[in-house]
Amino acid sequence: MPQPRKRATIREVAKATGLSPAAVSYALRGMQVSEETIERVRQAAAELGYEADPIARALASGRTGMIGLLCGSLEDLWQQALAVGIGRALKDNDRYALILDAAGDPAREHTLARQLRDQRVDALIVQPVDPAAPLWAELCEGLPVVSIGDALAGARAAGEVVFDNRAGVTLALEHLRERGHRRLAVLTSTRASTPDRPADVHVMAEAGRLDLDIELVTAPQSPASATRVAGEMLDAGHRAFFCFADSIAYGVYAASAERGLVIPSEVSVMGYDDHPMSGLLTPGLTTVDWDIDGIVRAAVRMVVAAADGNPRRRRIVQAPQLHERGSVG
Amino acid sequence: MPQPRKRATIREVAKATGLSPAAVSYALRGMQVSEETIERVRQAAAELGYEADPIARALASGRTGMIGLLCGSLEDLWQQALAVGIGRALKDNDRYALILDAAGDPAREHTLARQLRDQRVDALIVQPVDPAAPLWAELCEGLPVVSIGDALAGARAAGEVVFDNRAGVTLALEHLRERGHRRLAVLTSTRASTPDRPADVHVMAEAGRLDLDIELVTAPQSPASATRVAGEMLDAGHRAFFCFADSIAYGVYAASAERGLVIPSEVSVMGYDDHPMSGLLTPGLTTVDWDIDGIVRAAVRMVVAAADGNPRRRRIVQAPQLHERGSVG
DNA sequence: ACAATATAGGTAACCGCTCTCACCATGGTA
DNA sequence: TACCATGGTGAGAGCGGTTACCTATATTGT
């Protein structure tokens, strides 16, 4: 049984002002009515404590004013930072975000994405776990989608901020090579879990080019669980790491400390993504930096434009930058 | 203009099965209809690709199945961890969370809380910025609210997981005192920003009891900005810190490193909240631990029960624990 | 065999708002 | 004087479900 809603409805406001509900609706949104009527309605609404019901509004108009944000995996600190940044930026645009977490699971991503569409979000920002899913093509029909990270395969996205991961990988591997590391442990995250894992493929290709001896392992993104994997690699004799997320690199720090190994003299660590924390560690984590503020701004600008009905349909390719801080010896 | 929704409606399913819309509605929710009919409806729904529209459902029933999560300030890493944990735990309960961020602003908290209510969330978890706001009393009428952190003043909450901050403060200050620190810089967070800041008051009281010389400063919760404040205190000669959030403590680490000061031999740092990262630093951050998993479990259990209509109305007082890791010399 | 009770499903009134469309004053134009 | 834009306004039909209430039919008790 619906709980007793004591709130005023638009009909009561109509009655109070002697207007029709329709007129009130228009007045409150400042359309098609005279200034005088608007003022009268405002007054009455304030007195009755009337506020339009967003659910009813959504049902009738098909719009909500909300923007969906579907994160790939909030376990990753960088993605957390991204989500928080986007939330704040949207707030500055008088929009508000509905944040959901796919938890790295393509099936869940599928479910939640449709759920957001059904919630009538005006637009969607997504950091796809599986950018190749047919889902996206379906979703992009009738809902502006802005993707961050990878481009959506075969879908007409309303905007894309893609990371040039090939360049990022090259940057990282070349840096490690220059510093004299030939044998590397590469800890990839579950985030790059597209079917064929293009980033991993590129890692292998670059390894060939640079004459590197690589062991590739999948690690969970949470620092705590990454510590275990990192420990195993250290015990196996690895001393140089390329981690596909800064939060994984934190695990290498912890595992090294546990074993009394010093970074960077004994162990070298390279991160990826540049989380705000990375500069605070000792030594600072050398990492590949994606300009998180720029990404946030670009994505938000695109999504707001799209939600307002004028999509830019632009693709911005984000170039990586090597941020050297001293964790590679 | 509402975009063309090509989706099947309940009426189409009714037509296809030769039943009334009502019967279909019941069947899909497994009430009042025969097994056979249910199966028939399922079949037809699957064929038509029918899925109930959550908005329409919410409008008619006043329920959504969603649980609102209103965070005090997602800038704080600990609160991020809490939010992620709650999100996952709710997922395990087949519930899904709508996450919003008050950004430490009471006014925003006010707006968003009402917005969540208007969104018809079945229940609300809140980490109040201002637990004394009259808002809560209003909200608790007709919506189960579970609060984490502080108790809601004058409101009938559906559950409370309160932190015994007095005990936590005492624990921290006594530890620092035992280790021989008499002059302390206390960096409080904006999180405890209730009008009278009870935690701060207690700090001063305990300082008196323990004969401590305290300087109390407000610091932003983001590590990067906390670094600046910490630096100023270091430059002013402070060498012992009590930080009211681990993320602030990270700032002390960074500021110390910048100045070539070594923790714990030259600088002592005490945190508060035990973020997952804190164990990964070198040295590990000594902090006051709140058993985040326990909090998540308790809050989620309460909120799910309340959303299902059987509120427990319990108050759990969370006891702090000193987690010594070596950052206090 | 007949009243009493379940049980399945139909009817129709909502939920609170938006939006199309028809209507009605105006005042300017032919 | 008749005619047409013009722009404010009201009526009413949805939006896509849910639910209280009611009617048949099947089941049960005596």
Spatial ordering of strands, largest sheet of chain A:
2-1-3-4-5-11
Mean pLDDT of chain A: 85
Order of helical and strand elements of chain A: HHHHEHEHEHEEHEHEHEHEEHEE
Structural class from helices and strands of chain A?
alpha/beta
List how many beta strands of chain A DSSP finds.
12
What characteristic shape of chain A results from the CA principal axes?
elongated
Question: N-to-C terminal Cα separation of chain A, in Å?
Answer: 66 Å
Are there runs of chain A of 5+ residues with pLDDT below 50, and where?
1-5
Percent in helix of chain A: 40-55%
Separate helix tally of chain A? 12
Strand content of chain A: 15-25%
Largest sheet of chain A: 6 strands, parallel
Q: Which pair of protein chains has the largest interface, and what are the residue counts?
A: A-B, 53 and 52 residues
Oligomer: homodimer
Task: Compute the CA-based radius of gyration of chain A.
Answer: 25 Å
Nutshell version of this structure?
2 copies of one chain form a homodimer. Chain A has helices at 10-17, 21-28, 35-48, 54-61, 77-92, 106-118, 135-140, 165-178, 198-209, 223-235, 246-258, 292-307; strands at 66-71, 96-101, 123-126, 145-149, 159-163, 183-189, 213-219, 240-243, 268-270, 287-289, 314-318, 321-323.
